Amino acid sequence: MTTMRLCQTCGHPMISWGIYPTKKGPCPRYRCSFCQTTTSVRIDKHAKNLTTFLHFIMVDRLLSSYPGKGRSLQRCFGDIWMYWFLSPVVDQVHYVIHVDGLYLYRDCVLLIVMSPTHILGWRLACSEHAGAW
Length: 133
Fold this sequence. Notes:
Layout: E1 14-22, E2 25-32, E3 38-40, H1 46-58, H2 71-77, E4 98-105, E5 108-114, E6 119-125
């Protein structure tokens, strides 16, 4: 099932009108059958790249084991590595907390603070030492 594109000028349905070549690859063009305006729409691949990224970090597999030694994946994941989700502020008193470090890479560790029931916060650091906590 394909969604029908509507003209931004008049609101009538648009029809496919070929492909527009760009440096990033071919871009589909559309034309309004009523007002004759044309537009090109780039396909947004961020959601697909995020799904692939989440699958990559959850699977125990090296980047170099992917086709092309993972260079294509590195380009796809370049925008995603810039985002880091901030930990929420916890205003509760906990009598028992657990602290742990999860090494993501040689010089990158994810420091996690947990209560017996849920995760309280996290932080990215270079190593697991007292100053990082």
